[in-house]
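ingest -> validate -> predict -> emit
validate: passed (alphabet ok, no gaps, 201 aa)
predict: started
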Amino acid sequence: MALTALFGGSFDPVHTGHIKAADAVLNAFPELSRLIIMPAWVSPFKTENAPRASASERLEMCRIAFRDRKKCIVSDYEINRESISYTADTVAYLKKTYPEDRLILTVGSDSLSTLPEWYRADEIIKNADIAAVSRYSEEKGRIDAAARVIRSMGGNVDVLCAPPFEISSGEIREMLVSGKDASAYLADGVYRYIRDKGIYL
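emit:
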């Protein structure tokens, strides 16, 4: 059975933590056919804190960040919908697009804890297995507990480990706005794109 994975988010900006998370999925599932990177138009969790970069800028930053990973495909599906991006809708779309594939939804450890509360969470768990990527130190107990909840709902969860990355996109934006050097947290091409376009500055 072919295998398709989804990795969604605001990616505002996409940073090396996102790249490490994608690499964790690629390494954990070597048989993966494709890892779809899906920037959201607007996340349902961030309607009051809309992305600072435009949709086209976030899409291009993702293309730059993942261009050297052959199995990574950056999709504009959610951005083209121009509406709140519900994961249940995107998973259903991928289910129709790749009807023979096993689907894997990639989430961070924080998202795993809240997944049971997501819109149509039961459909997500039914249609996709979950790959939970832990990027922070000292959180194994919390992520294991969250995985047990998903499994109790009938879901399949794989807990993957990525190198620690303890800074958020919001903190990186603050660094850029204040003129601090954030290059250590961004792919070289992404950092150049942000500087050239004056994003967040």
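The chain has a mean pLDDT of 92.
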